[in-house]
Design brief:
It is built from 6 helices and 9 strands; from the N terminus they run ββαβααβαβαββββα. With about 160 residues, the protein is of the alpha/beta class. The strands form 3 sheets. The chain has a 5-stranded mixed beta sheet with strand order 5-4-3-8-9. Strands 1-2 form a two-stranded antiparallel ribbon. A two-stranded antiparallel sheet has the order 6-7. Strand 6 and strand 7 form a beta hairpin. The two termini are about 25 Å apart. This is Glutathione-dependent peroxiredoxin.
């Protein structure tokens, strides 16, 4: 069952690369008492994710934060090494959270997994964005095609804010 507007996010633990190495970050730490934009991608370094989806959020980071958002995070079913390398190569390190849902436990719990085995990627996340307030989903924008970042992109999120 897919998470819906008004639902509370399930408890989960992600890994994130920091200057001091990997850290665990829980949904409680990330979302409690905060207004957070979370967007998910099928994979770090994949074409649409790297050329379209992530850049929009990095370019509009300050504008999004200026609309009363406390934090921005990108999530992928990748390990923290890959997410850390993507953060570095994209120029996003330290600007937004790059969360590794390495075992897809969060992705499965919110019902947004996608079997991309036909493309050689295996189990991944659908492409989506959500606005979360104090752990509750306020908006949810799921792409119909993993190769597009329109309804889940930064421009669409800015319109919702």
């Amino acid at each position: 069952m897919t998470i819906a507007i008004g639902d509370k996010l399930p408890a989960a633990t992600f890994k994130e690369k920091t200057a001091d190495g990997p850290v665990e970050i829980t949904t409680e730490q990330l979302f409690a008492g905060k207004r957070v934009v979370l967007f998910a991608v099928p994979g770090a370094f994949t074409p649409t994710c790297s050329l379209n989806h992530l850049p929009g959020y990095l370019e509009n980071r300050d504008t999004i934060l200026g609309k009363g958002v406390d934090d921005i995070a990108v999530l992928a079913v990748n390990d923290w090494h890959v997410m850390g390398a993507w953060a570095q190569s994209s120029g996003g390190f330290g600007k937004i959270h790059f969360l590794a849902d390495w075992d897809a436990s969060f992705t499965k719990a919110v019902g947004l997994e996608a079997d991309l085995s036909a493309g050689g990627l295996g189990l991944r996340s659908k492409r989506y964005s959500m606005l979360v307030e104090d752990g509750v989903v306020k908006s949810l924008n799921i792409e119909e095609s993993p190769g597009q970042a329109t309804v889940s992109g930064a421009a669409a999120m800015l319109e919702l804010l």
